[in-house]
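for the recovery benchmark. tokens below, seq after
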């Protein structure tokens, strides 16, 4: 197989998180992306990464840090993604050819990436950061009504088109595999880096004022209305309890009003948005983390809580169940069981030993299972693996572009389409010195296309063709080694049962620095049964010739087809193409 160590990889990610451009405060997203860049260079030092960030902001500018370039792309509506992202990808690919694309979602940015990747032979990784099979999640993420139905249909239709899928929860991965939607699925949660550099921060609040915490966006999926209902039950049993809701969103005013109606004014504090780097202090004041989300992709806040030894009480949903171990690191309850949630929180608030034990066990679990460095390594490895597996070999070149000149030449040929394509490729080949034609004879119909400057010899098992040497090509050739400057073999190897020996013999009789030219059919019904033994792919030819000692830089494999998206049989549809009706 080929060695790719000397090639540069260019990883392009499509992101929706424009906090990487916020210079006023440290960004967890920025730190994470730069860490991905470092992990990529640890695998291949010359790897570069480009992050295209879809944003509604116009006043942000591109910048580069180390091997990572951050490019903002203004996209206020989904239609902007469909029209502007392809142009951006094309511009980047023209400057630095892209090795792999990783889209943050499997929706519009993923669709565009797939189409662009298909047209440019670039593998695409799709990422799923939520429970894609949850009806509630589908309605919130994909929308409702006809538009939501269409987005859902297109999303699931295209899932198999991705080279790989990166998901953040085990349940989603399992369902994707069981439903036959994809087999190359990788569970790689988003790394959590907060307070991960030593011992947990000591609690700075008194147990006499136990505090229950929530951190996250105030959106319908988080079901903060249910959170407040649980808080109300806890407050009735524990009058000195405090609640803190950290985060912002369009539901904040409604939730503050609802908390007041539930009589929680003296117990609860809505802190609003707090920068990620300041959340350490918030977690340090908490005793229990309460999560009432209807669905989650992973549950990063759960990991953050455990890193500060704060036990978690949550509903048993996708993602969260991968982190919380019931009655070991916290409690998981069926969705909607408010009474059970309240009882579990009260149990933890009133039992200091239990709370500390579960918090400590939680920290041990996440430090072992969700080590951010290991997660970054796994994601970087996935990017390179997909790029490597799908990357075209340098020796295998794309077919020639369809042009009017080519069409006129091929349509006027007196030969078959296959011969027309073959003759198009061998026309003008210069054979200087001594040449051996394997499978040829005293005269062949293509000799006039070659520029022969020297002696031409041939070998064939059939004396009718008047070869220089009558011999069975399935056997070692009766020729001394390193005897010829050139070896040609057209439309012969498919008839040789021991074709690998024949090729090795051709290379054996070739002088150092000599040239060989081979033409074989693949899809075309040329010289078919009972005398047709082998049809090999371009990759087989690459690997076999490399195993024979041919250097990759000296190898060129080109398909004999009309264009990149055509096959031999597609020409039957073009009745104007006169050559296909020619008899061989």
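predicted aa per position
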């Amino acid at each position: 197989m080929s060695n790719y160590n000397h090639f540069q990889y260019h990883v392009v990610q499509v992101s929706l998180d424009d906090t990487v451009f916020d210079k006023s405060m440290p960004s967890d997203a920025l730190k994470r992306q730069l860490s991905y860049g470092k992990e990529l260079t640890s695998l291949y030092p010359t790897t570069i990464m480009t992050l295209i960030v879809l944003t509604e902001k116009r006043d942000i500018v591109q910048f580069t840090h180390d091997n990572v370039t951050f490019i903002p792309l203004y996209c206020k509506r989904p239609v902007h993604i469909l029209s502007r992202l392809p142009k951006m990808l094309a511009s980047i690919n023209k400057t630095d050819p892209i090795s792999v694309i990783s889209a943050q979602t499997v929706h519009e940015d993923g669709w565009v990436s797939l189409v662009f990747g298909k047209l440019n032979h670039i593998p695409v990784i799709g990422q799923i950061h939520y429970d894609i099979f949850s009806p509630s999640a589908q309605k919130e993420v994909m929308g409702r009504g006809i538009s939501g139905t269409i987005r859902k249909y297109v999303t699931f239709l295209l899932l198999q088109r991705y080279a790989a899928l990166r998901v953040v929860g085990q349940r989603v991965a399992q369902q994707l595999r069981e439903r036959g939607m994809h087999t190359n699925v990788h569970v790689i949660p988003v790394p959590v880096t907060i307070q991960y550099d030593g011992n947990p921060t000591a609690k700075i609040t008194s147990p006499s004022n136990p505090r229950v915490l929530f951190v996250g966006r105030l959106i319908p999926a988080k079901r903060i209305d249910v959170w407040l209902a649980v808080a109300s039950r806890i407050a009735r049993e524990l009058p000195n309890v405090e609640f803190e809701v950290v985060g912002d969103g369009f539901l904040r005013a409604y939730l503050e009003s609802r908390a007041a109606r539930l009589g929680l004014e003296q117990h609860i504090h809505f802190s609003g948005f707090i920068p990620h780097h300041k959340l350490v202090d918030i977690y340090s004041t908490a005793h229990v983390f309460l999560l009432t989300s209807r669905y989650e992709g992973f549950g990063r806040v759960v990991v953050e809580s455990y890193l500060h030894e704060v036990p978690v009480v949550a509903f048993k949903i996708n993602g969260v169940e991968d982190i919380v171990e019931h009655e070991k690191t916290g409690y998981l309850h069926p969705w909607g069981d408010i009474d059970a949630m309240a009882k579990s929180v009260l149990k933890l608030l009133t039992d200091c030993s239990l709370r500390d034990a579960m918090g400590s066990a939680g920290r041990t679990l996440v430090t072992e299972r969700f080590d951010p460095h290991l997660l970054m390594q796994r994601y970087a490895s996935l990017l390179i693996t997909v790029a490597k597996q799908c990357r075209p070999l340098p020796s295998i070149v794309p077919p020639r572009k369809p042009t009017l000149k080519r069409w006129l030449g091929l349509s006027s040929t007196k030969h078959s389409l296959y011969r027309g394509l073959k003759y198009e490729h061998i026309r003008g080949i210069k054979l200087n010195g001594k040449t051996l034609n394997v499978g040829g004879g005293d005269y062949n119909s293509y000799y006039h296309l070659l520029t022969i400057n020297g002696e031409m010899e041939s070998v064939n098992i059939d004396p009718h063709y008047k070869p220089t040497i009558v011999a069975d090509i399935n056997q070692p050739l009766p020729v001394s080694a390193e005897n010829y400057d050139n070896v040609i073999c057209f439309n012969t190897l498919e008839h040789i049962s021991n074709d690998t020996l024949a090729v090795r013999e051709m290379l054996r009789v070739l002088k150092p620095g000599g040239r060989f030219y081979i033409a074989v059919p693949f899809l075309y019904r040329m010289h078919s049964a009972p005398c047709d033994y082998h049809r090999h792919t371009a990759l087989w030819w690459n690997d076999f010739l490399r195993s024979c000692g041919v250097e990759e830089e000296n190898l060129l494999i080109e398909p004999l087809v009309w264009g990149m998206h055509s096959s031999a049989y597609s020409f039957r549809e073009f009745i104007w193409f006169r050559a296909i009706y020619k008899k061989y």
